[in-house]
Design a protein that fits this description.
heterodimer; A: about 190 residues; alpha+beta; six-stranded antiparallel β-sheet; 5 helices; 6 strands; B: about 180 residues; about 50% helix
Chain lengths: ~190, ~180
């Protein structure tokens, strides 16, 4: 009897650990590996690297909890955001970086649960903006914007529930650059 | 006897732990200063008196304007190292210097923002770490002929402002620490 109870307990523990590992793995995969791009810094005329991890975001969110409407707006924007990671490289001339230089990031976005929801290409300027979302069930767990221009490449990776509208409101603060995102569709009144 | 030995051991450990913590804090700041000196073959100057005088000057200027001076860094917490009138040339390998700083600070600090402009030899690194109820911030600014390393203690409110506007508040922290009395 004791043996049976012990075996059941151990099995439950293993199952619980596996579920926790699965949840953790899902949460972790919304954060992209971006540090390998640092090699581009030597060729870039300007590099911006932003890392706002979960601890910093939580600490920050607490201090926008006042009654000020601006604070409330910010709090609403960053509520539950677990991290903001930005890599941006600006080059003096065109063709100073190659698609292969960012393939390590694009390959993460092609696998691991990311879905491209928007792709905008400008033939005139050669600009590309792609937006990817990661979902866990019906919850957004991450958003990534990849902006590729002839003389600039920018990757913004946000971990946590955020949508395009909130992202456009974050532009210019919290290290998020202006991305020339396509406008969000207006909400229809039903 | 065993109890006495245990208590003595605990007392010795506690006695060593506090200064070790302070030494670790000093070591990180000094380690960064040393990393800059070794990579760029330059020498720093410490001007704590100037930093204190500078804060007083800013406070005085604010009073004259009729405003209130709002300190960014906690009083007495600022450490500054200056590098003036020296040449900072990364020889096209600024990424290596960035890696060197990261390796120096990775154990105790979180990188917040790093901006590099190799052509102008301009770099800014902002790191933060917990300090009980407050936070330590480390701002490294390098330009072609000068550099500063500033470490300061900031409140959670200032940290929130820093996270919201890293470059702006980072510059303010450096300016507050380095402004001179005209």
């Amino acid at each position: 009897m004791k043996t049976l109870f012990r075996a059941s307990f151990e099995l439950m523990l293993v199952v619980a650990l596996l579920i926790a590992a699965g949840i953790t793995a899902s949460a972790q995969s919304a954060k992209l590996q971006l540090d390998q791009l640092d090699a581009l810094a030597n060729r870039a005329s300007e590099t911006v690297d932003v890392k706002l991890d979960e601890r910093l975001m939580q600490t920050t969110a607490k201090f926008f909890a006042g009654k000020d409407p601006d604070d409330a707006e910010i709090r609403d924007l960053i509520k539950n955001v677990k991290g903001i990671y930005v890599k941006s490289f600006t080059f003096e001339k065109e063709n100073q970086y190659a698609p292969a230089d960012i393939e390590s990031v694009l390959s993460q976005l092609r696998s691991g649960g990311w879905n491209k929801i928007i792709g905008v290409t400008s033939k005139k300027d050669g600009d590309n903006v792609d937006v990817y979302l990661m979902n866990v069930g019906d919850q957004i767990s991450g958003l990534t914007v990849v902006s590729i221009e002839p003389k600039e490449v920018t990757i913004v990776n946000i971990v946590g529930p955020i949508d395009l509208e909130k992202l456009s409101q974050l532009e210019g603060s919290f290290g998020v650059p202006y991305l020339n995102l396509p406008p969000s569709k207006p909400k229809s009144d039903k | 006897m065993m109890m006495k030995l245990t208590l003595t051991g605990i007392m010795i450990a506690l006695t060593l732990a506090a200064p070790l913590g302070a030494r670790a804090d000093r070591d990180d700041f000094n380690a960064v200063v040393k990393a800059i000196e070794q990579f760029y073959h330059v020498k720093h100057q410490n001007v704590p008196l100037l930093a204190r005088a500078g804060v007083k000057a800013v406070r005085t200027a604010a009073k004259i304007r009729g405003g209130q001076y709002k300190r960014i860094a906690e009083a007495g917490s600022v450490r500054v190292a200056f590098f003036e009138d020296q040449t900072f040339d990364s020889h096209g390998n600024m990424a290596a210097f960035k890696a060197s700083i990261q390796n120096t600070l990775v154990a105790n600090w979180s990188a917040l923002v790093q901006t590099l402009a190799p052509k102008e030899e301009e770099q800014t690194f902002i790191y933060v770490r917990d300090a009980n109820e407050k936070f330590h911030v480390l701002v490294i600014t390098i330009e072609r002929h000068e550099a500063t390393v500033v470490q300061a203690t900031i409140s959670p409110q200032v940290l929130a402002d820093l996270v919201r506007d890293p470059n702006g508040v980072g510059k303010t922290i450096t300016d507050e620490a380095t402004i001179s009395d005209p």
